[in-house]
Amino acid sequence: MFLLDGYDDAFVGVTDSKDGDLFSAVYDIDKIVEILAQDMSYEDAWEYFQYNVAGLYLGDQTPTFIRRKEELI
User: Model pTM greater than 0.90?
Assistant: First the structure.
């Protein structure tokens, strides 16, 4: 399982593969953007997340990114 440096506060759990062999970290998108926005504008943080974090590929254990239901309401 790969963990992303600097986003510990956005880590919400893990997901596993169907056979239970591989685990992937799960991160809260809004928390990541909030962390990034400490050093840049919200718009720049959102763009940075989309291109540099969400676009990251690390194979079968690439982290998963979610938005919590309560954050969408």
Answer: no
